[in-house]
Amino acid sequence: MQFRPYVSSSTLDDFDEKASLTARRRWWERFLNLTIQGGWSDEMKVYELKLKMPPAVRNWRGQLAPKDRRDWKRLSRLFRREYVKSRMSEPERYYTMSQYRDETALAFLYRLNLAAERADLNFRKSSADRERHIKRFIKKLSDDQLKRTLESQRFRRVSDLEFVLKQQEEVRQKDGPPARQSRDFKADNVVRDHYKPRREDRAYVAQGDEDSGYDEVDERETSVRSAPAVNNPSVSSNSSTPNGSTSEICTPNYTLTREDLIHEVYRVMDRVGWPQRPQAQRPGGPSQGQFQRPQHPGFQSRYNPDRDETCADCGRLGHRSENCWGNLICGRCHRHGHPTRLCETRPCRKCGEFHEGRCEDWKAFQEIKKLVRQGGLTDLPSDVRDAILDAEADSEGAQLN
């Protein structure tokens, strides 16, 4: 003799005829799962289904013939036809399907493929059906920029389109803002800055020419990052130097050396991801920060005369060196590696600018560039000062272009 465990139907909520079709199908699957786990008889299934029916569904059941109400096979078939199955035919559902507001392009492709399978469309083997299927998908997309990008491509298989959409989602996840971390307010779990200044209660002033003014930076918490460029007349009268070098305003027994100044400037520059340090690359390899084109056999332009050409700059197929994106500067985000019309970089939600790192670090870096333009921070190495001025000129040139 085999004993089955008792399965209570109270774990399942009552049926809601006003819920969405997906929720009603999910409820029916869970109810059938309970009947299998509990080993219910047909009479038990009819009784338990009746208990889960709301008043409107009970009225529907009451108007059925007696044999339909008491027989489980008849009742389950009529119940599925009335409340679980879609009233729209599968082909009609496929041709009227559209993308949801919060649905990604890849998830919409999966849902459209499933609808095409149920509508008996042979889009995987028939080239004509596949081309119409892909065109329908692109037409129903809500992202106009992605739609224009996909319209200029030709896909030999649906898997090629799926590959491109996965690459597009990876690029957006990298360019998107980092996820917010939940903070635990316990005393021993407070998140603190990993950087701790070696000396407290100190400040320094970096000056350029006599007419260029001065900037005071407070280092009580995070040095240059926390409060860059705060004007203070009382500091100016006590710390001005005729040669324009970096002077120090220190409390007794504390001094800011040249190494400390360079350390603070480098720390801010490192937090905003500037400058990009050169790395060892193989010949023909892509440079750091270059836009990575998705490489796939099916991802080729329809009328690309350079399909078999190899770029001498980045070493990739499909374009010549004069058409390489590696030397392009985007006029929107001012980054290297992609044209302006295909820029997908999102600005900072806090300040609306395009930058790396936090807004406080970026503002501090802007103050550093301002001091360098005014002739200050002379203790910095000459190559760093020249790189800052060259980057400023390149950024202004990109904005003018």
Automatic annotation (TrEMBL):
One of its GO terms (molecular function) is nucleic acid binding. Residues 226-247, 275-290 have a biased composition (Low complexity). Residues 169-203 have a biased composition (Basic and acidic residues). Residues 208-219 have a biased composition (Acidic residues). InterPro entries: Retrovirus_Pol_polyprotein (IPR050951), Znf_CCHC (IPR001878). Residues 311-324 form the CCHC-type domain. The keyword Metal-binding applies. Keywords: Metal-binding, Zinc, Zinc-finger. Residues 169-252, 275-305 are annotated as: Disordered. PANTHER family: PROTEIN CBG26694 (PTHR37984), PROTEIN NYNRIN-LIKE (PTHR37984:SF5). This is CCHC-type domain-containing protein. It comes from Phytophthora nicotianae P1569.
